[in-house]
Amino acid sequence: MSSFSKSSTSSIYGENDSDQLRRGPWTLEEDTLLIQYISRHSEGRWNLLAKRSGLKRTGKSCRLRWLNYLKPDVKRGNLTPQEQMSILELHSKWGNRWSKIAQHLPGRTDNEIKNYWRTRVQKQARHLKIDANSTTFQEIIRCFWMPRLLQKMDTSSSSSPSALSQNPTINSQPFDHAFHHQGSASAQIISHQVPYDRGVIDHQELNSSSDSEHGIGTSTSCISSSESMNFSQVSQFSEYPTGGDHFHASNNDSSEYNTFAKDFCQFDSNCYDMENISQPETMPAPLAGDFNNWVQEYDLVDNMWGAWMNFGNSGTHADINEFN
DNA sequence: AACCCCGGCAACCGCCAAAAA
DNA sequence: GTTTTTGGCGGTTGCCGGGGT
């Protein structure tokens, strides 16, 4: 149990001098005190501020409260698709450099971005039983999640040029091109972009596509990094079959496939939930027990399944045509 | 209605680097 | 040049509200 809960479950003040600092949630009075003090003396010198303002808080606590909550330009509310897109893209470049990422999202704090990543993005990784920092998951984000956001961005700004082109942090061209020239359904984008039926990966293409300076979408290949094709992460997919034989189970008799399908559909629905949009009519979620029909109509899941098989087969590619 | 579970988020902690003494 | 203080960062915790049973 943390010291925070200790103080909050008993008394907010301790027994001795050093414990006379308040902890836990801020009250309206404390917020007012802090705002008033900063309006008169400006921010900074947080320890001094804590002493002189009359707040029984540490300087660090005051700073945190101000920067993450009280500061006037702190933007509150749900992250827009554009902001989500930026986070995904910038995190792929910089990793957990939350403050650096936050600098590119005006009004958003590093804490908020960190929370978004942990509660939303990592949740998807857990559903798919993948390490959120793995190359594989990054590819899934790039191939699956980002096109959804692009779709949302474009539909929400239909009167203006492509929403993506308005985001300076994203190299929009390839996705933009894919979006406008391959149809609006994300399933189409994905099925065209994912070369899962390729047994050999073009490493020249891989190298160009993993150009970190340009970030996402610099290639039409979704399984793009050479690292991801080393199959060194097979152990991560131990719950999924590693033999090519399983892939023939396009009928309902493959429990492994069904497990994968369930997880994938959960991932899918979570993506929709996250963006607060409804699934397009062109790609409805499959009904329970009707998954195979859905698969045959929309080649989304079997593409992903093919990807698993590619990983699991150590390079022996699965023939996704067997599905259709 | 009561209980449980879970996700979101505010706030804390430890560590480290830069600035100040 | 050394020590102390301050500020910033990333990781973690636990409260709280909503939904499900």
From TrEMBL:
A Pfam short name: Myb_DNA-binding
InterPro entries recorded: EOBI/EOBII-like_plant (IPR044676), Homeodomain-like_sf (IPR009057), Myb_dom (IPR017930), SANT/Myb (IPR001005)
Taxonomy, superkingdom: Eukaryota
Annotated ranges, domain Myb-like: 18-70, 71-121
Keywords from the named record: DNA-binding, Nucleus, Repeat, Transcription, Transcription regulation
Entry annotated with the keyword ATP-binding: no
Gene Ontology BP terms: regulation of DNA-templated transcription
Recorded GO MF terms: DNA-binding transcription factor activity; sequence-specific DNA binding
Localization (cell): Nucleus
SMART domains tied to this protein: SANT (SM00717)
Annotated Low complexity bias: 156-165
Chief subcellular location: nucleus
Domain HTH myb-type span(s) in chain numbering: 18-70, 71-125
Region (Disordered): 156-177
A GO CC annotation given for this chain: nucleus
Family annotation (PROSITE patterns): HTH_MYB (PS51294), MYB_LIKE (PS50090)
PANTHER family membership: MYB TRANSCRIPTION FACTOR-RELATED-RELATED, MYB-RELATED PROTEIN MYBAS2-LIKE
Name the record gives this protein: Uncharacterized protein
Biological source species: Citrus sinensis
